[in-house]
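TA notes, week 10

Several of you asked for a full example with nothing omitted. So below is the full record: C-alpha coordinates for the whole chain, then the designed sequence directly under it. When grading your own attempts, check the secondary structure regions first.
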Protein backbone atom coordinates (compact mmCIF):
# COMPACT_ATOMS: atom_id res chain seq x y z
CA UNK A 1 0.00 0.00 0.00
CA UNK A 2 1.60 3.24 -1.19
CA UNK A 3 -0.08 6.02 0.81
CA UNK A 4 2.20 8.79 -0.44
CA UNK A 5 2.28 8.46 -4.21
CA UNK A 6 1.87 12.10 -5.31
CA UNK A 7 3.00 11.92 -8.93
CA UNK A 8 -0.15 13.12 -10.74
CA UNK A 9 1.04 11.38 -13.88
CA UNK A 10 1.02 8.00 -12.21
CA UNK A 11 -2.15 5.96 -11.94
CA UNK A 12 -2.68 4.55 -8.43
CA UNK A 13 -5.02 1.85 -9.86
CA UNK A 14 -3.32 -1.21 -11.40
CA UNK A 15 -5.96 -1.66 -14.16
CA UNK A 16 -9.57 -0.93 -15.23
CA UNK A 17 -9.58 2.78 -14.37
CA UNK A 18 -7.48 5.85 -13.67
CA UNK A 19 -6.99 7.64 -10.37
CA UNK A 20 -4.38 10.38 -9.94
CA UNK A 21 -3.36 11.68 -6.53
CA UNK A 22 -1.82 15.17 -6.76
CA UNK A 23 -1.11 15.61 -3.03
CA UNK A 24 -1.66 19.10 -1.58
CA UNK A 25 -2.50 21.66 -4.30
CA UNK A 26 -3.44 24.40 -1.80
CA UNK A 27 -1.06 25.83 0.81
CA UNK A 28 -1.62 24.95 4.50
CA UNK A 29 -2.77 28.50 5.35
CA UNK A 30 -5.23 28.66 2.47
CA UNK A 31 -6.50 25.16 3.23
CA UNK A 32 -7.31 26.29 6.79
CA UNK A 33 -9.01 29.43 5.42
CA UNK A 34 -11.18 27.39 3.03
CA UNK A 35 -12.04 24.87 5.74
CA UNK A 36 -13.35 27.69 7.99
CA UNK A 37 -15.22 29.43 5.16
CA UNK A 38 -16.85 26.22 3.94
CA UNK A 39 -17.86 25.20 7.46
CA UNK A 40 -19.64 28.56 7.90
CA UNK A 41 -20.99 29.43 4.47
CA UNK A 42 -22.19 26.14 3.03
CA UNK A 43 -25.82 25.14 3.53
CA UNK A 44 -25.04 21.85 5.26
CA UNK A 45 -27.86 19.35 5.74
CA UNK A 46 -28.00 15.87 7.15
CA UNK A 47 -28.00 13.36 4.34
CA UNK A 48 -31.10 11.26 3.83
CA UNK A 49 -30.91 7.93 2.09
CA UNK A 50 -33.31 5.07 1.52
CA UNK A 51 -31.44 1.87 2.23
CA UNK A 52 -33.26 -1.48 2.09
CA UNK A 53 -36.53 0.49 2.01
CA UNK A 54 -35.79 2.39 5.23
CA UNK A 55 -35.21 6.15 5.47
CA UNK A 56 -31.83 6.69 7.09
CA UNK A 57 -30.63 10.12 8.29
CA UNK A 58 -26.84 10.10 8.33
CA UNK A 59 -24.68 11.98 10.84
CA UNK A 60 -22.53 13.14 7.93
CA UNK A 61 -23.72 16.42 6.39
CA UNK A 62 -23.92 17.13 2.67
CA UNK A 63 -24.58 19.95 0.22
CA UNK A 64 -24.99 20.22 -3.56
CA UNK A 65 -23.96 23.22 -5.68
CA UNK A 66 -23.75 23.83 -9.42
CA UNK A 67 -23.95 26.01 -12.53
CA UNK A 68 -27.71 25.43 -12.72
CA UNK A 69 -30.28 24.06 -10.24
CA UNK A 70 -29.48 20.51 -11.42
CA UNK A 71 -31.41 17.77 -9.69
CA UNK A 72 -29.17 15.11 -8.28
CA UNK A 73 -30.63 11.78 -7.24
CA UNK A 74 -28.70 9.29 -5.17
CA UNK A 75 -29.86 6.60 -2.79
CA UNK A 76 -33.38 7.47 -4.04
CA UNK A 77 -33.37 11.05 -2.67
CA UNK A 78 -33.19 14.19 -4.84
CA UNK A 79 -31.50 17.53 -4.20
CA UNK A 80 -31.54 20.69 -6.31
CA UNK A 81 -28.14 22.40 -6.76
CA UNK A 82 -27.60 25.77 -5.06
CA UNK A 83 -25.73 28.58 -6.89
CA UNK A 84 -21.92 28.57 -6.45
CA UNK A 85 -20.41 30.49 -3.52
CA UNK A 86 -17.30 32.64 -4.06
CA UNK A 87 -15.05 30.04 -2.39
CA UNK A 88 -16.44 27.13 -4.40
CA UNK A 89 -15.87 29.01 -7.66
CA UNK A 90 -12.27 29.78 -6.63
CA UNK A 91 -11.65 26.11 -5.80
CA UNK A 92 -13.31 24.92 -9.02
CA UNK A 93 -10.96 27.23 -10.90
CA UNK A 94 -7.89 25.83 -9.08
CA UNK A 95 -8.69 22.24 -9.94
CA UNK A 96 -9.79 22.97 -13.51
CA UNK A 97 -6.37 24.58 -14.09
CA UNK A 98 -4.54 21.66 -12.42
CA UNK A 99 -6.40 18.92 -14.27
CA UNK A 100 -7.38 20.47 -17.62
CA UNK A 101 -10.92 19.18 -16.97
CA UNK A 102 -14.13 21.20 -16.50
CA UNK A 103 -16.81 20.65 -13.87
CA UNK A 104 -20.36 22.04 -13.52
CA UNK A 105 -21.36 20.84 -10.05
CA UNK A 106 -20.03 19.84 -6.66
CA UNK A 107 -21.17 17.46 -3.92
CA UNK A 108 -19.81 18.41 -0.50
CA UNK A 109 -19.45 16.17 2.55
CA UNK A 110 -18.81 17.17 6.16
CA UNK A 111 -17.56 14.36 8.43
CA UNK A 112 -17.60 15.58 12.04
CA UNK A 113 -15.07 12.97 13.18
CA UNK A 114 -13.61 9.57 12.32
CA UNK A 115 -16.89 8.00 13.50
CA UNK A 116 -18.40 9.16 10.23
CA UNK A 117 -17.41 7.77 6.84
CA UNK A 118 -18.91 6.69 3.54
CA UNK A 119 -19.66 3.06 2.62
CA UNK A 120 -18.44 1.28 -0.53
CA UNK A 121 -20.06 2.77 -3.65
CA UNK A 122 -19.27 4.03 -7.12
CA UNK A 123 -20.35 7.40 -8.50
CA UNK A 124 -22.35 6.33 -11.52
CA UNK A 125 -25.68 8.12 -11.17
CA UNK A 126 -27.47 8.38 -14.49
CA UNK A 127 -27.07 12.17 -14.87
CA UNK A 128 -23.29 12.07 -14.34
CA UNK A 129 -21.27 12.32 -17.54
CA UNK A 130 -20.21 8.77 -18.49
CA UNK A 131 -16.51 8.27 -17.67
CA UNK A 132 -16.35 11.99 -16.72
CA UNK A 133 -13.60 13.07 -14.34
CA UNK A 134 -14.44 13.58 -10.65
CA UNK A 135 -12.11 15.96 -8.79
CA UNK A 136 -11.98 15.45 -5.02
CA UNK A 137 -10.55 18.17 -2.74
CA UNK A 138 -10.00 17.53 0.97
CA UNK A 139 -9.79 19.92 3.95
CA UNK A 140 -9.36 19.37 7.68
CA UNK A 141 -8.53 15.98 9.15
CA UNK A 142 -6.52 13.59 6.98
CA UNK A 143 -8.36 10.36 6.21
CA UNK A 144 -7.63 7.11 4.39
CA UNK A 145 -9.57 6.54 1.15
CA UNK A 146 -9.85 3.08 -0.43
CA UNK A 147 -10.73 1.48 -3.75
CA UNK A 148 -11.92 -2.12 -4.25
CA UNK A 149 -12.14 -3.82 -7.64
CA UNK A 150 -15.69 -5.12 -8.19
CA UNK A 151 -14.54 -8.47 -9.67
CA UNK A 152 -11.10 -9.25 -8.23
CA UNK A 153 -11.75 -7.54 -4.82
CA UNK A 154 -8.20 -6.12 -4.97
CA UNK A 155 -7.89 -2.95 -2.82
CA UNK A 156 -5.78 0.21 -3.14
CA UNK A 157 -5.61 2.95 -0.48
CA UNK A 158 -4.38 6.52 -0.38
CA UNK A 159 -4.10 9.07 2.45
CA UNK A 160 -6.03 12.25 1.57
CA UNK A 161 -4.02 15.12 3.03
CA UNK A 162 -5.44 18.58 3.78
CA UNK A 163 -5.57 20.72 0.64
CA UNK A 164 -5.05 17.64 -1.54
CA UNK A 165 -6.58 16.76 -4.90
CA UNK A 166 -7.54 13.27 -6.11
CA UNK A 167 -8.97 12.74 -9.59
CA UNK A 168 -10.97 9.65 -10.64
CA UNK A 169 -11.56 9.21 -14.35
CA UNK A 170 -11.93 6.80 -17.28
CA UNK A 171 -13.64 3.53 -16.38
CA UNK A 172 -12.91 3.82 -12.64
CA UNK A 173 -16.58 4.00 -11.60
CA UNK A 174 -17.49 1.01 -13.77
CA UNK A 175 -14.92 -1.34 -12.27
CA UNK A 176 -14.06 -0.01 -8.82
CA UNK A 177 -15.91 0.86 -5.62
CA UNK A 178 -14.53 3.46 -3.24
CA UNK A 179 -15.13 4.32 0.40
CA UNK A 180 -14.02 6.52 3.28
CA UNK A 181 -13.55 4.03 6.13
CA UNK A 182 -14.55 5.13 9.64
CA UNK A 183 -11.59 5.29 12.02
CA UNK A 184 -11.09 5.62 15.78
CA UNK A 185 -7.77 7.43 15.17
CA UNK A 186 -9.39 10.69 13.98
CA UNK A 187 -11.54 12.94 16.17
CA UNK A 188 -11.44 16.12 14.11
CA UNK A 189 -13.75 17.15 11.23
CA UNK A 190 -13.03 16.81 7.53
CA UNK A 191 -14.66 18.52 4.55
CA UNK A 192 -14.55 16.91 1.12
CA UNK A 193 -15.63 18.46 -2.20
CA UNK A 194 -16.22 16.27 -5.24
CA UNK A 195 -16.48 18.33 -8.43
CA UNK A 196 -18.45 16.55 -11.14
CA UNK A 197 -20.04 16.99 -14.58
CA UNK A 198 -23.82 16.61 -14.81
CA UNK A 199 -25.43 16.01 -18.21
CA UNK A 200 -29.15 16.47 -17.53
O1 LIG B 1 -15.19 12.00 1.32
C1 LIG B 1 -14.59 11.54 0.34
O2 LIG B 1 -13.37 11.63 0.21
C2 LIG B 1 -15.32 10.83 -0.76
C3 LIG B 1 -16.75 11.18 -0.92
C4 LIG B 1 -17.39 10.39 -2.03
O3 LIG B 1 -16.96 9.36 -2.42
C5 LIG B 1 -18.58 10.95 -2.68
O4 LIG B 1 -19.06 12.02 -2.29
O5 LIG B 1 -19.08 10.30 -3.61
FE1 LIG C 1 -17.96 8.72 -4.25
Amino acid sequence: MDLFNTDPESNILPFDGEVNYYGPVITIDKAQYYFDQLLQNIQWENDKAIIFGKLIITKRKVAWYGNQPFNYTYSKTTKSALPWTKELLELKDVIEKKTGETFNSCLLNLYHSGNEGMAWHSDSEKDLKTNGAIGSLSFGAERKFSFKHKATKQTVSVLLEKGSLLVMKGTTQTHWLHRLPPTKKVNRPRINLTFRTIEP
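Residues 18-196 form a domain with the Jelly Rolls fold (CATH 2.60.120.590). Use that as a sanity check on your answer.
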